[in-house]
Write a structure and sequence with these properties.
By secondary structure, the chain is α/β, with parallel strands linked by helices. The chain contains seven helices and six strands; from the N terminus they run H-E-H-E-H-H-E-H-E-H-E-H-E. The strands form two sheets. The chain has a four-stranded parallel beta sheet, sandwiched between helices. It has a two-stranded antiparallel ribbon with strand order 1-2. One of its GO terms (molecular function) is threonine deaminase activity.
Length: about 150
């Protein structure tokens, strides 16, 4: 089992630099009315303006970039029917790594099309997410890919 450790401030700075090469700088806006209502200084980071419309691409970029090249070449696999799958597909493409996304049958065709456009291989499996996740874990084990939770 992998032991997780908290990132250091240097790890965070490095992640920011790495991700910054592949994503947009999104606006940070103060909301005076919310600030007044909540009696706090409220700021909102608008990740909805990010590539793919989600903050998740930041994590995908950092995960793939920190994976050793020999492991990256084996590829990444995850189960997702949305932003997570798009982020791993985008990051894999940015670092020339193979990527497979397992989606439940009947997933949103727009999201599936976006994942395909990002270069990932799609596999439709199962009628619920749990079956898709199980299949993604099997693929990781059988084909030596990195499973991304």
């Amino acid at each position: 089992m992998t032991t997780l450790t908290a990132p250091t401030i240097e790890d965070i700075r490095e992640a920011k630099l790495t991700a910054g090469k592949h994503i947009l700088r999104t606006p940070l806006r103060r909301y005076p009315i919310l600030s007044e209502l909540l009696d706090a200084d409220v700021w909102v980071k608008h990740e909805n303006f990010q590539l793919l419309g989600s903050f998740k691409v930041r994590g995908g970029i950092n995960l793939v970039s920190q994976t050793p090249q020999k492991d990256r070449a084996k590829g990444f696999v995850t189960a997702s029917s949305g932003n997570h799958g798009q982020s791993i597909a985008y990051a894999s493409k940015a670092f020339n790594a193979p990527c497979t996304i397992v989606l439940p049958e009947g997933s949103n065709p727009v999201k599936a099309g976006s994942i395909t456009a990002l270069g990932a291989k799609l596999i439709f499996h199962g009628d619920v997410f749990e079956r898709s996740r199980e299949r993604a874990e099997e693929l990781a084990k059988d084909e030596g890919m990195r499973f991304v939770c």
